[in-house]
Design goal:
The structure holds two protein chains of two kinds. Chain A is an alpha+beta fold. Chain A has helices at 44-53, 71-82; strands at 33-37, 61-66, 85-92, 95-101. The chains are: A alpha+beta, B alpha/beta.
Chain lengths: 104, 122
């Protein structure tokens, strides 16, 4: 089963982009932590995201990989409820990827 | 932030109806992930969901297995309250339940419902 990974030395997060899927070819934002929730069903992508987000400081970015189509609605709803922000997301090659900035 | 919100979920369906047995835990885990306080109640056949050995047998199609959801709810701090007469009528006692359950009666359920922000029944 996938688990949250330790913070990676990736590039600094880019400025927030409008919510919604990023167009093809656009550079990915950086991430401070990666959560691989591929293969998990509702609500586990949200649960994994919430647990990993507690490890972040405000301003840091979490990257989530998921395959549950419900994540497209669930992650923005979770972010709104918890006061965090979906920087951007995209769907490609069978996976849905979110970049979530910890705000609070 | 929703830190002060509290959700009460009453589960009344047993393992013979796996989808309705699972959904309360799905909602509960999602609530906890959103920093909403969670109290779950179990009445009727819902009591059987927290009987030792039952959760691993419940897996509704296209849902997370109940055992994983139950573990998540407990790990994230959800409270599990079980109806006392419902247990007695099924010849069950505290030692038959998974760790983390509290046996209560009607007045406690009423107190939890009336102090919750919202309540759901399945």
């Amino acid at each position: 089963m996938a688990t949250a990974q330790a913070p990676s030395p990736g590039p600094t997060a880019q400025p927030p982009a409008p919510d919604g899927p990023a167009p093809d070819g656009q550079a990915e934002p950086g991430a401070d932590i990666v959560v691989d929730a591929r293969g998990l069903l509702c609500p586990m992508p949200v649960v994994r995201t919430a647990k990993a987000a507690k490890q972040l400081q405000p301003g840091q970015v979490l990257k989530l990989l998921a395959t549950d189509p419900g994540s497209i609605a669930d992650i923005p709803a979770w972010a709104e409820t918890t006061g965090n922000r979906v920087v951007t997301w995209r769907q490609a090659e069978g996976a849905i990827t979110f970049w979530v900035r910890k705000e609070a | 932030m929703a830190g002060q919100e509290k959700l009460f979920i009453m589960a009344t369906h047993g393992p013979d109806q796996p989808e309705l047995a699972t959904i309360p835990f799905v909602m509960g885990a999602a609530a906890l992930a959103a920093d909403v306080e969670l109290v779950m109640g179990f009445q009727g056949d819902g009591c059987l969901l927290v009987k030792k050995g039952v959760a691993p047998t419940v897996h509704a199609p296209e849902f997370t297995p109940l055992e994983q959801l139950l573990g998540t709810v407990l790990e994230l701090g959800g409270k599990l309250l079980v109806c006392s007469p419902c247990l007695k009528s099924r010849h069950l006692a505290q030692e038959d339940l998974v760790d983390g359950c509290e046996i209560v009666a009607a007045a406690r359920f009423v107190a939890e419902v009336t102090s919750a922000t919202n309540a759901l029944t399945y």
